[in-house]
Amino acid sequence: QDITVVMVLGIDQMGKVESSNSYNNLGASDMVALLIFDEENRESRILCLNRDTMLEMPILGIGGKKVGTAYQQLALSHTYGTGLADSCENTRETVSNFLYGLQIDYYVSMNMDAIAILNDAVGGVTVTVKDDFSDVDPTIGMGEVTLFGQQAISFVRGRGGVGDQLNVSRMERQKEYLSGFMKAFLEKKDEGISYLYSAYEQAMPYMVTDCSLTVLQDITQRYAEYPIVEIVSPEGENRKGETYMEYYVNEQKLDELILRLFYAPK
Fold first, then answer.
1. Measuring CA to CA, which of 47, 69, 152, 242 is 20 to 30 A from 124?
2. What pairs with residue 49 in β-bridges?
3. Which regions of the chain are under pLDDT 70?
């Protein structure tokens, strides 16, 4: 009770969001994060899920109807459906089931271009760069850097040629980015609804969400001042599958994490 959960998806696609006009699409979700707003304690947390997490997910067939389930990487849950609301709903159901029926109140899915737009709308995002990006984006140096435009995309998307190239390491960069973005957003939000509307309008062609501008404004007003007390991920183990890396969560640790984040003693 008294918790609002917003699922944020980063889709590994460039360009404006368009329907695939089919029951599947090529847009895997490279980032899956839950923003958790705790009204009782007036604080927020972010739960980042590894895109390689192996779990059960619904499969959508012709007409968007469920035709079964598959045990696959979490990122693939978004590839079922047209790439629009049906794909987001499929990921919402997948994540909800994974977290034992957790209610996810809203979702925001964005293609890579939206990241650059929102990044620049808050005046750039400052992060600490610990990995060498010279092979991916030589404009990103080491240490404290304020990211603009394509740099933001490279920072949250880059994996091959960066550090140990594991998704776990990329997730750490995504956590760093989310923290920096929220800080920049808080500093910018006092400009009022006109700023929020402008950013929303620019990013909408690259986004799919069930948050109207009114809902987004309400969320901002209610929760913007809540401090982010932690950014966490389920513990687990990376394994090399037949083709790709696979991530298996520690079930006991996951149970403990879910209880801590979403429940209180009766």
1. 47
2. 32
3. 190-193
> What was the pLDDT predicted at 192?
63
pLDDT at 9: 96
Tell which residue, 211, 216, 181, has the closest CA to residue 197: 216
Tell me what pLDDT residue 18 has: 95
Residue 114, both tokens: 């939206």
Q: Which tokens go with 111? A: 């293609």
* pLDDT on residue 232: 94
Closest to 48 (Cα-Cα) out of 174, 134, 146: 174
Helix, strand and coil in the chain, % to nearest 5: 40, 30, 30
Predicted confidence at residue 159, as pLDDT, reads 79
Task: Give the integer Cα–Cα distance in Å for 113 and 116.
Answer: 5
Which pLDDT tens digit goes with each residue over 232-261? 999 999 998 888 889 999 999 999 999 999
| DSSP E strands, 39-138 | 43-49, 54-60, 66-73, 106-111, 125-129
Amino acid identity of residue 143, one-letter, is G
Helix (H) / strand (E) element for 261: namely helix 251-262
Distances 210 to 14, 88, 100, 166 between C-alpha atoms, Å: 21, 9, 22, 31
Single out the residue of 46, 8, 5, 57 nearest to residue 30, CA to CA.
Answer: 8
For residue 128, the Cα-to-chain-centroid distance in whole angstroms is 20
- Report the 10 Å Cβ neighbour count for 166: 16
Q: Which two tokens stand for residue 80?
A: 């079922």
Task: Count CB neighbours of 32 within 10 A.
Answer: 26
Q: How far apart are the first and last CA of the chain?
A: 12
